[in-house]
Amino acid sequence: MKAPAFSTDMTITQLGTALSSYVREKWSQILENDLEEFQALFPEYEDATYGIFTDRLLEDILKDVAQAGFTSAAEPGKDDYVIAGFLLFSNSLEKETWGPPGYDKRVFWVVVQNSRKEKIGTLLFDLPHSHDEFSVPEAPSFFPLSTVEGREIRSEIRKRNNK
């Protein structure tokens, strides 16, 4: 699979679309190759296993994003868990009641800045998963938002996940 080309003049929508396309193509390969390992880790590491999965899914592509000049505008806290060098656990919400039993979702948000340190928007990253066993029942996805304000971001996450 060929990684998308990123350029310094991309909009948040273009960035989100490119990342979602990549994830849709790549997530099942990661599961197929590493499922037994994830299943073995899950009883001990629980949700942290999804961090390992997400690292493997996004690490390479997010290096390309960084090389194009895009970074997170947020600094990780002292005890924050950083996933793939881009997602901060402290900038996420768990949605446990949006689907059938055993079908949960964590939504991360990243305020993205360009190489000139201008905030261009926010990327939401939806990670469907289970707390009962290691399972990623559908492709994770990115969704772009034009806002960079925390209250508006959290409001949009709640709206999107209550549908």
Overall outline: globular
Fraction of residues in β-strands: 15-25%
- Unreliable stretches covering 5 or more consecutive residues: none
* Major beta sheet summary: 5 strands, antiparallel
Distance, first to last CA: 33 Å
Query: How many distinct domains?
Result: 1
Report the C-alpha radius of gyration, rounded.
15 Å
List how many beta strands DSSP finds.
7
The share of residues in helices is 40-55%
Structure overview:
The chain is an alpha+beta fold and 163 residues long. The chain has one domain. It has helices at 12-45, 48-67, 150-161, and strands spanning 71-72, 82-83, 87-88, 92-95, 104-113, 119-129, 141-145. The strands form two sheets. Strands 1, 4, 5, 6 and 7 form a five-stranded antiparallel sheet that branches. A two-stranded antiparallel ribbon has the order 2-3. A hairpin with an 8-residue loop joins strand 4 (92-95) and strand 5. The mean pLDDT is 91. InterPro entries: DUF6022. It holds the Pfam family DUF6022.
